[in-house]
């Protein structure tokens, strides 16, 4: 058995950053990014994700804690002595140098004389061989982005840091570059640490996502794990949309918890509940809008037993092609979202109709009711 | 990063050789500032203090001067030379207004209407700088010569009658009159008006004009309600850059004027370099400085543009 | 009526061009009169065409000497002011330090001060110190008043520079010195060049401050000033014209070169 190469591991322990003005951008945090993974730091602006990235790059000195690359402690190494390279937000290409010299910059600084072959190969990899003698401002946004990636990758860093690398691109190009970056990462096998505020981007590209909020990591896991089993209201609301319903713990039934919400009962697998479940305690019951089925109140008898149910009235319906999005007012909770695939549309499901919402208990998740129920929603971000 | 030293101890066990936080760079700004600031302190600020001190000294060249807190010098200087002070302010104000009136259309033209001629026009505005301003000012002696075409034209259009009536000119002459001096001042400081105007006009988004037009503003209304207010920073710094040097100038008054158009700069120059009455000269210079600083401060406060530098 | 509409539409253009004419008329006169053959000592009235002055540009006693003194002072003042001013500009933009307000005012004040005040006060300093007036005192004065202009020009450029560029350089294995030489300096260069050019022009053309602090040294503007009293030789116009042409040619060539370079690249 060979010892696994872990020189590309990034290990942050107890790392924090407090600025001179007293603002704490990053609370002490521990994080390990394994060699060769595509890791995303996801969060709204100001959550500390970029500061964390800059501490790994050496552009920001941590107030406490250590940064390790593999077994090497690099906490106090200046950026130019770290085997780490960065793709900067809005690229930071040197405007006075042409594309070739931009890409060759890192090699030349390390005293490598014959750079021509390497640079040309690198430019081929990002499909910019023709543009070598142009200045950055003569390239399009997508091309500049590829130059920035080439300029960093040519140095064969242990870790590539990407700071909102796709933020300046339009939607279509962003999709294309997401795939392209993913392809490059698979090809070179380097550890990528990617900072983004775009949850879709993080979920498409990364193996592991750390959701950050107010200088802390809220939850860390694979994209599907984060989506299916969020553990805080922030994650539940920031990644996609969640319906959160306040409920009270009634009884336990084997592996399930039975909760009271309004007049009805809801069932929640205990394994999917991150809140304490003493009888009489409050719990937030979460369910994703696409997991809910809608049945007209007249057909309520046809709903199979064992499913969680709520009654309500359709307040609004918007048809968006693949699905229809309903807003439903229920006695236990206003404005529940429900997405229904447009397979067989029930003509009776129009605003004003009385309906029953039902879903499998296995899709339910439970959160601690002591949290802000709106954390991570767009309304909260706008406020 | 000065709080580094106050950071809590790391949570991880201390690394065997923990380097102290980098302090490099803490004194760098002071080293960078030192030589230049020293220069300005010794050769700009210190002279002001010397000058203030000289203005309250008494004595003579032969016996030397002593500080006697002789503030009467100020009173004497003011009562003797107030006409020159007033004249300086008046000429400088007139030149500033003329510069604004003449400079604005050109700055506007270069910023919005010049198209591919923009760079060429800019060069033509700056180019005169490269010929010594004294030579160019002397050229006005030829342009405004008594039997030259300009005076002829003004005469036959009866404009000279009007300016004579206003006291700007005298007889059939333009040279050696207030008009010639103001004309010279305007000419000399015009680029200092045009450049800041152009800079602030150029920053205005052309779409704002379209938006104003779209919202039913006629061209003139667009100018009054959109363009001109947005160019205020340029107007403010342009007027300052014109008024300040014009108020202290003595070259135009000397070359194009007469003894009746002497400005305060002429008086200071004569007192300092010919009469060698240093206390009076210093007092005059100090008054000029104080007056200008006061005016500039009030002007900047009222126009609400504090970030001129 | 069509004429009035036409006039109205082009009012700005016409007014602007008239102003331009006002600005350039003296230069035209200077050029034309460099070919004059005046009768008396003064070159203010057109007499007849002559190339005499162009053939002997240094044919007037002391003029070319004063020109050389002016050029030397301008070169040294430019070097001094650019160096000191660039350092200050970098400190102002890149670092935090105490007394920033005082530093800013000390830089702003020389630009907001009538020249005659600075000239007179500097002379009192030199007289009090018993300094020998001449080349050195002129140079000191010129560096002083050019400094603020360099700071302003360089500061504007450095402020508009993306700090991420330097971070990118450090990230790509450039140490502090390399980062400064390879990235910061080349990008700040246009601002520094603008400051230097302005310094040169200001120093070369300065009369008022120089006149107070020159002692018996005669710079070119002082020579012109003196000749306005004694008699203006045609050679003054020759120098004025030549300077104008050199400057315009210099700017035009650099424009053409940068245009061509851009076209090749595009």
TrEMBL record, chain A:
Tell me which family the UniProt entry assigns to this protein.
Answer: Belongs to the ABC transporter superfamily. Spermidine/putrescine importer (TC 3.A.1.11.1) family.
Q: Describe its assembly.
A: The complex is composed of two ATP-binding proteins (PotA), two transmembrane proteins (PotB and PotC) and a solute-binding protein (PotD).
- Domain of life from the UniProt record: Bacteria
Q: Which gene encodes it?
A: potA
Against InterPro entries, the record matches this protein to: AAA+_ATPase (IPR003593), ABC_SmlMolc_Importer (IPR050093), ABC_transporter-like_ATP-bd (IPR003439), ABC_transporter-like_CS (IPR017871), Mo/tungstate-bd_C_term_dom (IPR008995), P-loop_NTPase (IPR027417), PotA-like (IPR005893), PotA_ATP-bd (IPR017879)
A Gene Ontology term for the protein's cellular component: ATP-binding cassette (ABC) transporter complex
The kind of enzyme this is, by top-level EC class, is translocase
Query: What Gene Ontology molecular-function terms does this entry list?
Result: ABC-type putrescine transporter activity; ATP binding; ATP hydrolysis activity
Q: Establish whether keyword Endoplasmic reticulum is in the entry.
A: no
Catalytic activities: ATP + H2O + polyamine-[polyamine-binding protein]Side 1 = ADP + phosphate + polyamineSide 2 + [polyamine-binding protein]Side 1
All copies of domain ABC transporter, residue ranges: 10-239
| E.C. no | 7.6.2.11
Q: Which organism is it from?
A: Streptomyces filipinensis
**Alphabetical keyword list:** ATP-binding, Cell membrane, Membrane, Nucleotide-binding, Translocase, Transport
In Swiss-Prot or TrEMBL terms, this protein is called Spermidine/putrescine import ATP-binding protein PotA
Q: What does this protein do?
A: Part of the ABC transporter complex PotABCD involved in spermidine/putrescine import. Responsible for energy coupling to the transport system.
Name the SUPFAM superfamilies on file: MOP-like, P-loop containing nucleoside triphosphate hydrolases
Recorded coiled-coil stretches: none
What Pfam families does the annotation carry? ABC_tran (PF00005), TOBE_2 (PF08402)
CDD domains in alphabetical order: ABC_PotA_N (cd03300)
Automatic annotation (TrEMBL), chain B:
* Pfam families the UniProt entry points to: BPD_transp_1
Give a GO cellular-component term: plasma membrane
**Where is this protein localized, as stated in its record?**
Cell membrane
| ABC transmembrane type-1 domain sequence ranges | 85-299
Cite the residue spans of the region called Disordered.
1-22
Task: Please give the name of this protein.
Answer: ABC transporter permease
Organism (species): Streptomyces filipinensis
The portions of this protein that span the membrane are 30-50, 89-112, 119-139, 175-198, 281-300
Keyword entries, A-Z: Cell membrane, Membrane, Transmembrane, Transmembrane helix, Transport
Q: Which GO terms describe its biological process?
A: transmembrane transport
Q: What is its main location?
A: membrane
UniProt cross-references to CDD domains, sorted A to Z: TM_PBP2
Homology family:
Belongs to the binding-protein-dependent transport system permease family. CysTW subfamily.
Q: Topology relative to the membrane, per the entry?
A: Multi-pass membrane protein
Q: What InterPro entries does the entry give?
A: MetI-like, MetI-like_sf
TrEMBL record, chain C:
**Where does the record place the ABC transmembrane type-1 domain?**
67-257
Record PROSITE patterns: ABC_TM1 (PS50928)
Q: Where in the cell is it found?
A: Cell membrane
Q: How does it sit in the membrane?
A: Multi-pass membrane protein
Transmembrane spans: 12-35, 73-93, 105-127, 133-154, 180-202, 234-257
Which InterPro entries did the record assign? Bact_Polyamine_Transport, MetI-like, MetI-like_sf
| GO BP field | transmembrane transport
Q: What GO cellular component entries does it have?
A: plasma membrane
The UniProt record lists the keyword Membrane? yes
Q: Which Pfam families match?
A: BPD_transp_1
Q: Which UniProt keywords apply?
A: Cell membrane, Membrane, Transmembrane, Transmembrane helix, Transport
Q: Which domain of life is it from?
A: Bacteria
* Entry annotated with the keyword Membrane: yes
Family the UniProt entry places it in:
Belongs to the binding-protein-dependent transport system permease family. CysTW subfamily.
Protein name, UniProt field: ABC transporter permease
Originating species: Streptomyces filipinensis
The lineage is: Bacteria, Bacillati, Actinomycetota, Actinomycetes, Kitasatosporales
